[in-house]
């Protein structure tokens, strides 16, 4: 078991070093590691109709209505863990059900809740 | 294989596997990219195994019986810890590979904690603690007390790992369950076992010097007595006497005699610093006792009375056989091969010799080998129809490892060979 421990630990650190070297030496198209700034948060809570939300149903302009609030998550989309085809269809829609049934019918985590709040732009009228 | 043997072999790994599979099933990702899915599965698989690993560390007689005995629990404590470590090493690498699909820079960003939020730091601290804890776990040359202190770094690693998950996901029910199980397991181990809250108070009422470096202590219960069977061991932490100062930590001692009034005798050989000090043990010393543990000789006592038995004892390994011989008259053909360095070191030799002359079913073969291993082929060659015997072995590891292949070569069935290979580290 000692051998297994040594081999796995060495491979792990070699892999970490490999990722570092790759990041330094492999040049790809300039990657913008997006420091996600929340969308413009309006000081006053603005009300939107679902019809207005529906006008933002594209990958480069994605609003969603969740539990009575409206969110502009365009800048967050690239960072969302699941496959794009899973989340994109909800752009421009009332997505509360999707929010509450993420995986095996479970809600998103409380951390996701906090994250989502940063993208709130108003409430649903 | 009997149901009893199945339990002893598979209860502990089955419990660990079920807990882990349940956790992985709960968290199994749907419609996620491959590498991210792998990262989630390895994270939850590793966490489930870490928690199972802590449960397997609990020293409680009922739990030990349920999970097939402390020996099996400790074996799987080691294995589950190692597998958990491997899975948790894969977790950050799989996350990085998930980023790699987009760009190498993103992969590196995923790994560097300063580019991420503080929960990532918790994850890295957990992994480093597990790494350091495991590294010291393998350093068996460390003195036991220091080794144990380093080993506790591993439980700290588990706490950081769970904090990492909690910070990321919040209070999901499954995670809360894992945290509660971890708290109970660690609490039981530290408060009930190590601090002795669940132990039985006994006192030393007699100390007999059995051989050059071995004493036999009579332990009498101060309150309720525990029920022990021959072949079992207890964990004992000795206190202080007038001139004697105990080490205060629990060590395992095999019971050498079970008295009618609930008192026990244990054989204590000077093998380490603490047991060396115990050679000066004196009556009236108070002690805390936990147990009993172990299933060695249980098949011997419950098996058919017509099957002859071969017992092979090396040094202090004679102790469980003494408990059996003292507890019951020998009612089946039993041959005891007793191996020691020299006669002066051979505890209980006079008692055994006397028994061999009076008990018709009991035969004693002794061998003193000053250095190295005895001539096992010659010794075992003295046993008529050795394949018909149930064989029980207790002694130092090199002896057990030398005898096992020889017995198999001589045609003794694997199921007929019984031994306990116990190590508290």
Give the amount of beta strand of chain B, in percent.
15-25%
Count of DSSP H/I helices of chain A: 5
- Which series of helices and strands of chain B comes N to C? HHHHHHHHEEEEEHEHEHEHEHEHE
As an assembly, this protein is heterodimer
What attributes characterize this protein structure?
heterodimer; A: 125 residues; alpha/beta; 37% helix; elongated; B: 425 residues; 6-stranded antiparallel β-barrel; 5-stranded parallel β-sheet; 14 helices; 18% strand
Describe the structure.
The complex is a heterodimer of chains A (125) and B (425). Chain A has helices at 2-25, 50-54, 84-87, 96-100, 110-117; strands at residues 46-48, 57-58, 61-66, 69-72, 93-94, 120-124. Chain A has 125 residues and is of the alpha/beta class. The longest helix of chain A has 24 residues, at 2-25. The radius of gyration of chain A is 20 Å and the shape is elongated. Chain B is of the alpha/beta class. Chain B has 14 helices and eleven strands. In chain B, the strands form two sheets. In chain B, strands 1-2-5-4-3-6 form a six-stranded antiparallel beta barrel. A five-stranded parallel sheet of chain B has the order 9-8-7-10-11, sandwiched between helices. In chain B, a hairpin with a 2-residue loop joins strand 1 and strand 2.
């Amino acid at each position: 078991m000692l051998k297994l421990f040594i081999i796995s630990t060495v491979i792990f650190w070699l892999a970490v070093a490999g990722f570092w070297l790759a990041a330094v030496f492999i040049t790809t198209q300039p990657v913008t590691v997006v420091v996600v700034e929340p969308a413009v948060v309006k000081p006053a809570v603005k009300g939107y109709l679902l019809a207005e939300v529906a006008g933002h149903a594209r990958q480069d302009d994605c609003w969603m209505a969740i539990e009575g609030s409206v969110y502009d998550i365009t800048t967050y989309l690239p960072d969302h863990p699941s496959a794009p085809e899973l989340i994109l269809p909800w752009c421009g829609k009332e997505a509360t059900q999707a929010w509450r049934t993420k995986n095996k019918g479970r809600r998103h985590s409380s951390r996701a809740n906090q994250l989502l709040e940063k993208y709130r732009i108003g409430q649903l009228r | 294989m009997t149901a009893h043997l199945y339990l002893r072999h598979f209860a502990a790994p089955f419990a660990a596997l079920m807990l882990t599979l349940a956790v992985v099933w709960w968290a199994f990702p749907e419609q996620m990219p491959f590498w991210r899915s792998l990262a989630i599965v390895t994270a939850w698989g590793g966490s489930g195994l870490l928690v199972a690993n802590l449960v397997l560390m609990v020293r409680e007689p009922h739990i030990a019986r349920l999970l097939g005995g402390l020996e099996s629990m400790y074996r799987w404590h080691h294995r589950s810890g190692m597998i958990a470590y491997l899975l948790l090493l894969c977790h950050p690498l799989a996350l990085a590979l998930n980023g790699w699909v987009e760009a190498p820079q993103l992969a590196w960003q995923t790994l560097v904690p300063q580019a991420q939020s503080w929960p990532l730091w918790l994850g890295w601290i957990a992994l480093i603690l597990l790494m350091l804890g495991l590294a010291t776990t393998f350093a068996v040359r460390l003195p036991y007390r220091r080794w144990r202190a380093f080993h506790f770094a591993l439980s700290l690693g588990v706490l950081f790992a769970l904090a990492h998950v909690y910070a990321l996901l919040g209070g999901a029910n499954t995670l809360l369950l894992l945290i509660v199980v971890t708290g109970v397991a660690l609490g039981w181990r530290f408060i009930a076992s190590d601090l002795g809250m669940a132990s039985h108070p006994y006192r030393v009422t007699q100390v007999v010097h059995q051989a050059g470096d071995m004493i036999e202590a009579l332990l009498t219960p101060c309150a309720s007595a525990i029920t022990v069977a021959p072949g079992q061991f207890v964990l004992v932490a000795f206190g202080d006497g007038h001139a004697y100062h105990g080490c205060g930590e629990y060590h395992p001692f095999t019971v050498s005699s079970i008295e009618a009034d609930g008192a026990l005798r244990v054989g204590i050989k000077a093998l380490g610093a603490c047991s060396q000090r115990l050679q000066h043990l004196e009556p009236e010393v108070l002690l805390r006792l936990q147990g009993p543990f172990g299933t060695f000789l249980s098949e011997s006592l419950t098996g058919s009375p017509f099957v002859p038995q071969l017992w092979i004892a090396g040094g202090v390994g004679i102790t469980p056989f003494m408990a059996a011989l003292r507890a019951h008259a020998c009612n089946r053909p039993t041959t005891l091969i007793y191996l020691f360095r020299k006669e002066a070191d051979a505890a209980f030799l006079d008692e055994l010799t006397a028994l061999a002359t009076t008990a018709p079913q009991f035969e004693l073969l002794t061998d003193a080998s000053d250095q190295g291993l005895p001539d096992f082929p010659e010794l075992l060659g003295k046993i008529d129809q050795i394949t018909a015997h149930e064989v029980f072995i207790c002694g130092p590891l090199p002896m057990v490892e030398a005898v096992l292949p020889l017995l198999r070569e001589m045609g003794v069935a694997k199921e007929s060979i019984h031994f306990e290979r116990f190590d508290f580290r």
